[in-house]
Every structure is written in C-alpha cells, then in structure tokens.
Amino acid sequence: MSSHEHNHGHHHHHHHNDFHDYNEAIKEYKKTFPSKEDVLEHTPDPAVKELIHNMEKVGLETVFDRFDAQKPHCTFGMAGICCKNCNIGPCRITKKSPRGVCGADADLIVSRNLLRWVASGVAGHGYRGRESMLALKWVGEGKLNLPILGPEKLKKSATTLGIDIEGKSIKELAVLVADILLEDLSRTVPDKHKTMHAFATPERVKVWKELDILPISAYHEITDALHRTTTGTDSDWKNIMQQLSRCGLAFSWSSVLASSIAIDSLFGLPVRSTVKCNVGALKEGYVNIALHGHSPLLVSEIVRLGKTEEFDALAKKHGAKGIQFYGICCSGLSSMYRYGGVIPLSNAIGAELIVGTGALDLWVADVQDVFPAIMEVANCFKTVVVTTSDSARLPGAEHYAYDHEHSNIAQTENLAKKILTRAIVSFANRRDIPVTIPQYEVNAEVGFSLENIIKQFGSIEPIAQALKTGKIKGIINLVGCNNPRVLYEKAITDITSKLIKENILVLTNGCASFPLLKLGYCNKSALEHTGSQLKEFLGSDLPPVWHMGECLDNARASALFRALADACGKDLKDMPFAFASPEWSNEKGVAAALSFRLLGINSYHCVEPPVQGSPNVMKYIYEDTKETIGAVMVVDVNPDSLGNKIIEDIEAKREALSWS
C-alpha cells in the first residue's frame, strides 16, 4: 500500500473540540491526497496511465496537474469554516477570531455552507429532470413530435400517483403525469408532495412527518435554503440541518424519482445488452461523436437520427465508414442502455483525456460535469464542441441549443440534424489530426432495472430468498463522482473487489461505474473473484456488479431496495443494504448520499465533507442521525478499512434480523 493510503484513524469516530484539534485533523487528511505521480503509479486502469502520458507528450495539462497546482489546499475551506455569504467578510474561524463579524460561529457557518451545497444538488438534478417533464407534457399536448417509448412505465406511474387510467389515451396520461411531477417540482402553495406520498413507504413518511421535514416542493425548499442562509436570517445550526433534510427529500422524490419517471416514460426502460467499453473501442475512420452531460432529450434524437440511412449515407459520402457514438458521463450511459451501439469511455474527471486521443470529431455537451478545461484540449485536436443548453455554455464552443424558455422545443429534430451534419463536416476537416488510442477494451453487461430483473427471476422472491439465506449477504448501491483527493478510480475498484468476495451484490451507476465497466466487474469473468455463495446465486449468467445506468438511476437501486424490503416484510432501515460514493466530489453527490440516509440506509465515503470545523455538525451527521432517521454518514479515507466497515455493518444488520 502506498504511503498516502494509510488510515489515519481520525475519521468518523473522533470529534475535535477546539480549533487546534481540527486543524490537526485537516493536516492529517491533506497528507492522504495523492499526487499525479501516485495516480500514474496506482490508478487501476492501464489505459488511463497511457492517456495521461499522451497528454504530457503534447504538452497539455490534466485535472491531476491542476489538482497538484492547488496544493496546499485552503484549510478553512476544507473545514467548512470560511463564510462568503455577505460582503462584510469573507470571515474565517480561527482561535483568534472564533466568530465572524456578524457573530456566526463554526457550527453556523459549516451548516449554512452544507445546506447551500445540498440545495444546489436539488437544483442540478431538478433542472435536467424538468426538461424531460416538460417534454413529456408537450409530447402529450402535441407541441413536440416524439414517440412515447415507455407506455407501460407511464401507465404504472399514473396508477401509483392515483390517476384513473381507464379510457385515457397514452398522450392524455402523459400530460396528467407530467403535471403532477412539475407541480411537485415547483409548488409554492403548501400541500402534499404527491410523488413522495405515492412512492415512499408509510414507515418512512411517518418518521419524516414526526421530524417535520416533509418538503413542499423542490423549488420551495431550494428557495427556503437560500433564504435562511442569507445575512442575519437563520442562526440556529440545528434548524439549518432540518432544512438540509427537507432538501434531501425534495432531491429524492422530485429531482431523482420524478425525473426518472418522466425520462423512462418518454424514452423507455433500459434494455439489457452487452457493450464494448474503454478507449480501445474507439473506431478510426468513423464520424466519432461523444455524448456528455445529463439531459437525454436532444441526445436521444441525435442518436436516433445518427442511426438512419440518411445520415449513414451522408457520412460515407464524406469518406467515413459510418457514424459511431461514445458515452461520457451520464448522457452517454442513458443512451447506451436504451439504444445500444453507444460505447462508454469515461467519467467526467477523465473526459479531457479522451479528447486527447485525437479520435473525436464532435463533442456534444449538455448540462453538468462538463469541465471548462475540455475546450483547451478540443482546440488542440480540432474537435468541434457543441453546447445544447442555455444554462451551460463553454466559451469557444458552437451553440445549437434550446433557448431559455424552451420556445424552440419543436425544433428538436432540426437541432439534432444540424449537430450531426456539423460532425460529418468536422470529420472531413480533421483528416490530418494524429490519433493515439491505447488498446484496452472489454465487454460489459448493462441495462439492469427492477423490471427486467423481476422478469429474469420470474418474481422478486428468489432474490429475497437469497438475501434471507445469505447467498446474498447484502446489497450495496456503489455510485458517485470521482475526486483527485483519492487515487483516481482506485477506491471504487478496491471496495468493489472486497465486497463481491464477501458475497455482497453491487449495484452501480454514473461516474463511479466507469472503472467497473472498464475493468471487467460488469462481466461474467468477474465471477472468478466472487464469493462462492453469491456466485452460486448468480449462476453462470450474471455478473456480480449490476450496471443500472446514469446517476439519476439511483432511483432504480432504491426501487430494488424497496421491492426486496416489501418481499421480506421488513422496513428499509433494517435491511442489509448500503450506499457508497467512495470518490464523491460535488453538490449532487452530497445530496444523493443524504437521500439514501433519509431512507434509513448508511452512506460510506473515502472523501470528507467540509464539516471538520464544527464538532457539532460532525457529530450530527456521523452519529446523531442514527437515532432520528436510522442512518449515518461513514467516512474513512482508506478504501480497505472502509470496505471492512461496510461488511461489518451489513453483518450486524443480518444479525439483528436473525438472518445469520
């Protein structure tokens, strides 16, 4: 084990009662940050090492160079005790100045900063969800000409939401469902959050009601969060943490579940398939188009048209062998499991490395996790970058997009045609660009969902039985972003290796799923490294890691968790389930972990949140929520000991159920 991986033992169980102590804790934590050299030595995917070397050869910096250049990181920011919410400051908490100019102490500053992050997470997934909710409504009303590819999902969701579906057309149902989802997203007059009440378990709703954390709507809770953290408003850190929970529930039921209902209804459910992945699958001689971001609306139309005879012929006319699509981050994953023929290459952190192969003619960027650094690399390799949303522009990129009001939504097909034509022109203009492709590729099984898992097993019962008997010791949803604070992709693979060996079934999605796709964990070959009990349950047919899609597809994991808890007649909080985002790095990541804790499921991480400046807030999220919501956040920078902790906690849950 390399020196920076040592477990410093101060993580989720020790609390620091004065400034000096948590300053020391931060110093210890910073020692664990890897350098670019460490990444080159230890990152688990050999293709990544080659890609980094390629960037060095052409003189381009990477995310790892920029991370090193930021060192030493600001101690105040890392501890969460820097306040920039007004212009009297910025204020930071030190021994000499234990309170900001307004009198805010460490507890207040840390809790306010954390709340603003979670509110941003609600906005992030909520924004891209809103685009699909609006599209579903407008398709129903005839304003947008797209087929409804998930009629069964739409009908089932309508019934759960209390809509009488008898005698109503699919288009009428689309409007009725979309209206409820949009109302829950943006309600201002206090009322029941319909999606939450329809889909959550009665046990959880009762707990949330008693804690007074039921959300009014996503927009309402975001506004409330921003309001109460403005100058001289809410000065009680405990009250702020209560609003954090309301935002967490708004995130779960509007930003994630409601968005997922709209997207599945419109674009259809995942299809189980085998895909090629990693950079070796990049094809020279094709018009190569990368799909990056989080909004499936325009992407799905680009992929659909790109597979037509018309565009295939146009590509060939310009000297290409055809058109090929590649997945970066979530837009790539959601199109991969729906339409097939989309090759997943990289998560958001590694995106610029992929542009650095020189193999891509056009990069479609919609919203979120598209780093500005991508433009420098794209310009170097003459890769055309196209942005498609008014809320997400890149200086220097070409812009073929929906406007702020989506007034040009009916132009979806035309926008897609323009982008495809631009890609073909780019291919013709890039003949002289040198291409360097590391030769690593592997097959992966993708497209798991509750619906097709039940189909495969005949019902939920065989999986519930396997859980009870211990053939499946437990199930974890292992997801999240990547973060240069930990060795790139290594925490994810180390923990997964440990868990499958211990007969724990792994569900995955989003950025964290890329190393698992690329390194064979989503392939039946991984059964060789799987515990004998789990292996017996999976048979020769299924891998030990079930790939459920993009980051929004946490909704698929929670649906499976719910179905299994119901089948076993137990509360979610008592089941041997876990959530992990070992390398999380952004606002949506902190909100996702919170949403699983609100279900009563612990969250596990190798990256600290910025709370070490407040012993009270630390104790609250690492210990106290065990009593209130039945789950805590567990942080340990050492993947090995974090993995052990997950196994221990799952075994303790089994023991409490007498399932040992």
Q: Would you spell out the secondary-structure blueprint of this structure?
A:
Elements: H1 19-31, H2 36-42, H3 46-57, H4 63-70, H5 75-79, E1 82-83, E2 91-92, H6 106-141, H7 151-160, H8 170-186, H9 194-199, H10 202-210, H11 218-228, H12 237-267, E3 273-277, E4 287-292, H13 296-306, H14 309-317, E5 323-328, H15 329-339, E6 342-346, H16 351-355, E7 362-365, H17 374-380, E8 384-389, E9 398-402, H18 412-429, E10 442-446, H19 450-457, H20 461-469, E11 474-478, H21 490-501, E12 504-509, H22 513-518, H23 532-538, E13 545-549, H24 554-568, E14 577-580, H25 587-598, E15 603-605, H26 615-628, E16 633-635, H27 639-656
Parallel strand pairs: 4-5, 4-7, 5-6, 7-8, 8-9, 11-12, 11-14, 12-13, 14-15, 15-16
Antiparallel strand pairs: 1-2, 3-10
Helix pairs in contact: 6-8, 6-11, 6-12, 6-25, 7-8, 7-12, 8-12, 11-12, 12-25, 13-15, 13-18, 20-24, 21-27
Walkthrough of the structure:
The structure is a single chain. With 660 residues, this protein is of the alpha/beta class. 50% of the residues lie in helices and 11% in strands. It is built from 27 helices and 16 strands. The strands form 4 sheets. It has a 6-stranded parallel beta sheet with strand order 6-5-4-7-8-9, with helices on both faces. It has a 6-stranded parallel beta sheet with strand order 13-12-11-14-15-16, sandwiched between helices. It has a two-stranded antiparallel sheet with strand order 1-2. Helix 15 (329-339) links the parallel strand 5 (323-328) and strand 6 (342-346). Helix 6 (106-141) runs antiparallel to helix 8 and helix 12 packs across helix 25 (587-598). The protein is globular and about 65 Å long. The two termini are 33 Å apart. Mean pLDDT is 95; it is low at 1-16.
